[in-house]
Amino acid sequence: MVSEGDILWECPEDRLAETNIVKYLGWLAERGRRFDGYWDLWQWSVDDPSAFWQSLWDYFEILHDGEIDAVMTADPMPRTRWFTGTRLNYAEHVLRHETTGDPSRAMLHHSSECRTAATMSWAEVGSAVRRLATSLRDRGIGPGDRVVAYMPNIPETVIAMLATTAIGATWSSAAPEFGAQTVIDRFAQIEPKLVFAVDGYRYGGKDYDRSADLATILAALPGVETLVTVPYLNESSTECFARETIAWEALLNRPEIAPDAFAYERVASDHPLWILFSSGTTGLPKPITHGHHGIVLEHYKSAAFHFELQRNGALFFYSTTGWMVWNTLMWGPLMDGRAVLYDGHPAHPDATLLWRIAADTRATVMGVSPTYIQMVRQQGIVPGRDVDLSALQSVMLVGSPSTPETFAWAYEAIGPDIWASSQSGGTEFCSGILAGSPLLPTRAGEIQAPGLGTAARAYSEEGTPVTDEVGELVLEKPMPSMPLFLWGDDNFARYTDSYFDTYPGIWRHGDRVRFNAHGGGFVLGRSDATLNRFGVRIGSAEIYRTIETFPEIADSLIVCVEEDSGGYYMPLFVKMAEARALTDDLKTEIARRLRADRSPRHVPDEIVEAPDIPATLTGKKMEVPVRKLLLGAAPETVASRDATKNPEALDWFAAFAAKRAS
To answer: Which residue windows are transmembrane per the record (predicted)?
Structure first.
């Protein structure tokens, strides 16, 4: 039986000697800066952020024009700017290794339910990016113009993103499973000039035509001058729309352009790179705008030191283009390695699929969610036994909190030599806040440490740092990849209200977190979904940790609402596994286990079977909308149906709330 904090793995000395972070420490030592392990290095990185980020600029040999005026301006968050006086380009860094090795080596591995597995070489990707970028320039697309994509996780989307950012235009994307209104809510805020789009997609063996949705989207975006169509569901599709429509292949149909004959648009440190969006379950999603400088530096740091991506390694994350994780897939090429793309259902026809892709592509770092691992466990799959994962070095558990049992399963079922790491970040940074390092032991259920250069703390309600207590996750100092601004928020009013309303001058991230004495961290769920049980705050993740041990239960959701009488109502909703029933005996055992594993305050008032658990398009449980329904809010106000992965599940909860209120 594993317990929270048990040490499950420590990096062997021979492997540790070859890690990126040890090589970086050696490089620093040669320059007179010596540090005794991770915590000493981390302390310097937050005490002297200018020196730390300058060291990364030098270590990774950032390609740039101009001279540095200020590594970090004196402006307080959120107005801090980095490496002012210089100009650089994100895409140039991703593709810089095309000519440093054999250009025919693989850069992208890709597969989907519509296409068989294949690879694209560095030369093929680089050539396509240069030709597409030049065609975009010929069509009048330039620095600052917004280019958007209604595209899945396929090579064309990567190429379009790199071509767009290579010329200084600003990128944004939405996954084709997003409904029309969800896409309009995002793209209408940023007024794109050009749209890339597929005709449809396939998921779980079922085809979804998106032509009607695309027509609706375009009708709501009057500033779009050009639609670039990418046949995908129907490779022979030639459908045209009201405005100028051009085929993908037509833009690439031009002579080759040599790497040294193409000029990247190097831009200033306040120039927008891409726009990511918050989940948008209620209200308009926030248009989070990042810059080239911050993303290049943060992505080098995270790829090298927190994911330990090695040269020639391969990064495989299951992600759609509507999640910030998709933007981090280029960490592989950034480190002179490879990226693995997959579009489709992660468990079709069964949950061995992602592991087979990892084996076939010789992935070295794989990112999966604890929810997916729960599915794998329920199907009795043992990845280390069932497929060849001999190339796999690390498994990143991301997307939601990971239990000690999930960590233990990773070492038992994947392999005892892997580095299993839970990390937590956010769309706001397009990276991690709490991260991992092979310099530290892996402890069951813990995130190893705050990331380098990340002054993360837990704050009490009074605004003081706390240890071994649950508090609000905050950042006391700026990071380069913090948003430049929210698009259209010229006076920073929405930005300030979103992140600096609780602790003036301190970034409040919106997560409940606990740090222990040795530095390990535990994200306990979103602050607005905290279970306030008779004045005692409980993280929903603590409930889910116990519920996940029941094979009878496929998924669950718990909320707590305050009643008019002054009391509390805390129901636990469960989706049963196939052919399993919610019996009185099972309810009794759930209550007994929660009382024993947690406390009497963790025992729900009611255990209710639900046909499904509502989730956002990126797979997060919709605790806040369900809580609002139970508090009496109208269904149309709690969440956008188009921002919900399974809106029919939310309908069931709306009916449940209405019945309870009657």
So the answer is: none
Q: Number of C-alpha atoms within 13 angstroms, CB side, residue 233?
A: 20
DSSP type of residue 644: B
In angstroms and rounded to an integer, the radius of gyration of the C-alpha atoms of the chain is: 24
Mean pLDDT by 10 residues, the chain (662 residues): 92 97 98 97 98 98 98 96 98 97 96 96 98 98 97 98 98 90 90 96 92 93 95 70 84 96 98 88 81 98 97 95 93 98 92 96 93 83 96 89 88 96 92 96 95 96 92 96 96 93 92 90 75 64 84 93 73 94 95 79 89 86 89 86 87 93 83
Q: Which DSSP letter does residue 100 get?
A: T
Residue ranges per structural domain of the chain: 526-661
Closest CA to 75 of 509, 487, 482: 482
| CB distance 304 to 328 below 8 Å | no
For domain 526-661, the CATH architecture is 2-Layer Sandwich (3.30)
Among 561, 529, 557, which residue's Cα sits nearest to residue 543?
557
Distance CA 628, CA 617 (A): 19
pTM of the model: 0.86
Three-class secondary structure of residue 167 per DSSP:
coil
* 441, 405 contact by CB (below 8 A): no
- Look up residue 35 and give its two tokens: 């540090």
Q: What is the 3-state secondary structure (H, E, C) of 268-299?
A: CCCCEEEEEECCCCCCCCCEEEEEHHHHHHHH
**Encoding tokens for residue 628?**
């609002």
Burial class (CB in 10 A: 0-12, 13-18, 19+), 220: middle
**Spatial distance between the Cα atoms of 562 and 527, rounded to a whole number of angstroms:** 16
CA separation for the pair 136, 129 (Å, rounded)? 10
Residues 6+ apart with CB under 8 A from 11: 19, 419, 438, 439
Say if CB 469 and CB 458 are below 8 A apart: yes
Q: Quick check: 475 and 455 in contact, CB under 8 A?
A: yes
What DSSP line would sit under 523-570, residue for residue? EEEEGGG-EEETTEEE-HHHHHHHHTT-TTEEEEEE--EE-TTS-EE-
Measured CA to CA, the distance from residue 232 to residue 230 in angstroms comes to 6
Strands (E), 12-167: 65-72, 82-87, 106-112, 118-121, 146-150
